[in-house]
Design goal:
This protein has 277 residues and is α+β, with helices and mostly antiparallel strands. The protein has five helices and 16 strands.
Length: 277
């Protein structure tokens, strides 16, 4: 049985998934369905809270690519009590254990219940970003202004041999660009990256523009003959990270060149930061 020091409630047990009876496992599944919370396939059922033998709350955890996350569900019958807080504490305790073994480990929680934001903030978590109605929370060291390297380490940095030097150029495929036009660089969440940013931004780039001209035409109906290729020039300290949202070419199964350039420049100016190829 799992000891949950923070949970001092009579008649409550915290058990692992392998300790459930078939009836309790059915209760867990019914609880998940009724909650409407989508538990992703990478989550594992870690802890189940039992009240008088009945499944009352669950904790699902995942640790992949240096990011730990968890989801909790509390049965309708037991909502409004201390079970949610106990499950959150249990999840944070697990993260701390992982952090002790792997200092690179990051915590990111997709908080779907806005009522949990304030309690989590009291435990030291902060809002990292908001994407598509989702609030992503985690830890940021107090007073620390994460630099580009710190953001890269939260994600998947490209190999050292591929990292840019100052003045080096990389390509980007665009449409309807004009000389003199500024290019806005995106907040990290917009390009699918982890981290709060704090002055670090990202933009998709490639070393194979011909592939992406064709791909944009096939996937989005863009007119390939009207596409443009631009050079984006790297500044000191800029870094590439892998584009994890892009897997492989659906036709060939081969992954083409796709990176995200991390930079502290919010706007790229024509003639200095970018020009036409």
């Amino acid at each position: 049985m799992i000891k949950l020091k923070s949970l001092l409630i009579e008649a409550v047990e915290a058990v692992g998934s392998d300790e459930l009876t078939p009836e309790q496992y059915d209760q867990v599944e019914q609880m998940r369905i009724e909650s409407g919370i989508h538990i992703l396939s990478d989550r594992e059922l870690d802890t189940v809270l039992l009240v008088d033998g009945e499944a009352a709350g669950t904790l699902y955890t995942s640790y992949r690519t240096n990011v730990f996350t968890f989801d909790i569900i509390v049965s309708k019958k037991f909502r409004g009590g201390p079970l949610a807080a106990a499950l959150n504490r249990r999840g944070l305790e697990e993260y701390q254990q992982i952090l002790n073994d792997d200092p690179r480990a990051k915590l990111e929680l997709d908080v779907v219940n806005d009522k949990l934001i304030e309690p989590l903030q009291k435990w030291g978590l902060t809002i990292l970003r908001k994407v598509g109605g989702h609030t992503i929370m985690g830890y940021v060291d107090p007073g620390e202004d994460p630099d580009i390297k710190a953001v890269a380490d939260m994600n998947l940095p490209a190999d050292d041999d591929y990292q840019p030097s100052e003045g080096e150029s990389i390509y980007r495929v665009v449409w309807d660009m004009k000389k003199g036009q500024d290019i806005e660089v995106h907040d990290l969440g917009i390009v699918g990256l982890r981290g709060s940013g704090n002055g670090v931004y990202g933009i998709h780039v490639t070393s194979d523009p011909e592939y992406w001209k064709r791909r944009a035409g096939e996937d989005f109906g863009r007119e390939v003959e009207k596409s443009q290729v631009i050079n984006i020039y790297c500044s000191e300290g800029d870094m590439y990270v892998e584009d994890e949202q892009y897997a492989t070419d659906p036709d060939t199964g081969i992954k083409a060149s796709s990176f995200i350039l991390l930079t502290k420049r919010k706007v790229l100016k024509y003639g200095g930061d970018w020009d036409f190829k």
